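ok trying this again, last paste got cut off
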Amino acid sequence: LLFERGAFDYSATFVTSEAMFFYSLGLPLLACLQVLFSCCFALQKTRPAILATVTGIIANVISCNMFQHYTHLAHKGIALATSISALLAFTVLFSYLYKKLGGLESKKILTSLVKTFFSCIFMAFIIIFIYVYMRSHFDLSVIYNRFLLVMLAFIAGATVLIFFVMLFRVEEAGVIVDIFKKKLGLVRREG
């Protein structure tokens, strides 16, 4: 939908998708790192955040060079190196905060993570199913039809995700719903 214009053909799209796959492995860790950095700053402990950042940078440089020169991963190696460096930075920061705070409600976090993971698996299954099943019903040479197919898969995936997050009673989903209710004025103000 967005690519394959001019010189950017199918092979370029494929190469880009390979790199995106390896980058996507590190996305959850990068999101968690932002939260952990905020925790460190809230505790006025900047050294662990700096240590985690420096660890990540060093790991990124070493693994980029290693993957580029000693494997056949090429561009995928750079993306994988970024994900590995995020993992190491996360490990350093999480270990520090775990010791500093005497635990981080690990059971609660893990339960929420597992519920969210399975909700996302169901969502991915529906998106792939709809895309594979419905693409035979659309003339994909027309950009409008490609856009329509992507939107259909997106809406179905979002609906399934919301359904399973609510079914599994993911606590964070309730917090998000409450924020939207407040913003839309659907919650009565106390006082």
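PB: full thing came through this time. The radius of gyration is 21 Å.
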